[in-house]
Design brief:
With about 220 residues, this protein is of the alpha+beta class. The chain contains ten helices and five strands, in the order H-H-H-H-H-H-H-E-E-H-E-H-E-E-H. It has a five-stranded mixed beta sheet with strand order 2-1-3-4-5, sandwiched between helices. Helix 6 (about 75-100) packs antiparallel against helix 7 (about 105-115) and helix 8 (about 155-165) crosses helix 9 (about 185-200). It is elongated and about 65 Å long. The protein starts with 11 loop residues before the first helix and ends with a helix.
Length: about 220
Amino acid sequence: MPIKDWPEGERPREKLLKQGAQALSDAELLAIFLRTGMQGKTAVDLARELLARFGNLGALFAAAEQEFCSQPGLGPAKYVQLQAVLELARRSLNETLASGDALTSPNAVRDFLRLTLRAREQEVFYCVFLDAQNRVIVGEELFRGTLTQTSVYPREVVRRALQHNAAALILAHNHPSGAAEASQADRALTRVLCDALKLVDVKVLDHFIVAQSQILSFAERGWL
């Protein structure tokens, strides 16, 4: 049955207008983005199939152009639209962080790092530099490695912190092919960076590990 023939309260667009976007399932939100289905399938049916194929929204968003466009109902136009939406979300979150105390917006920090790092195919080490009021000065990718290892140089992190006149920073890196769990090497590197930055009066507020569907905070684990 076409969506237009569904009861009004079950149609994704009408449901969003009445109840808000948070009331919709992943499939319903994706169906609004897709706009149309295919012969014999509504947009919601197609959205469910895509989520089953990729596993979750994060994996769908992180898909390479060729893989994304090869799926029924998708193509270059949809890929471009999705990338534009993701970039708008990143910029909006960046503006939110830059306009206030990063520590009072922990969810914004997490969401920004998810959008920035989750789709990366290589392991990336990222720093968010903060001023004395914990306002974001800038976020930078400092190092890039393979899928399993990144070479991080504490001297370079200290140099960039001093260049930005940062009072504090948030560290982050991604695990492209694994879970958001810290290895002994991750914890050892964090200790080295904390000690090096302490020598120049720069505090490490947190270190996040970002995976496809999870994000781990060193501060929450009591590791800082």
